[in-house]
Design goal:
This protein has a single domain, classed as SH3 type barrels, CATH 2.30.30. It contains no helices and four strands.
């Protein structure tokens, strides 16, 4: 799963996101989902979430 469908994401899930400042480099940040910020059911660039660390970004990969 690549994180573009909102129904695939739940709070407490392990994910990899790209922060706004890392969009050009593509650097991934790992964490646990605290809040889902995207309201629409899908998003072409990934669902935006807030991690438990407070970091906000779009999901690129759902962790195992």
């Amino acid at each position: 799963m690549d994180g573009k469908i909102r129904s695939d994401i739940q709070a407490g899930q392990h994910v990899f996101i790209v922060l706004k400042q890392d969009q050009r480099s593509g650097k991934l940040t790992e964490g646990i989902v605290k809040d889902i910020l995207t309201k629409s059911p899908t998003h072409p660039h990934g669902i935006k979430v807030r991690l438990e660390s407070g970091a906000v970004g779009r999901i690129k990969k759902i962790g195992e």
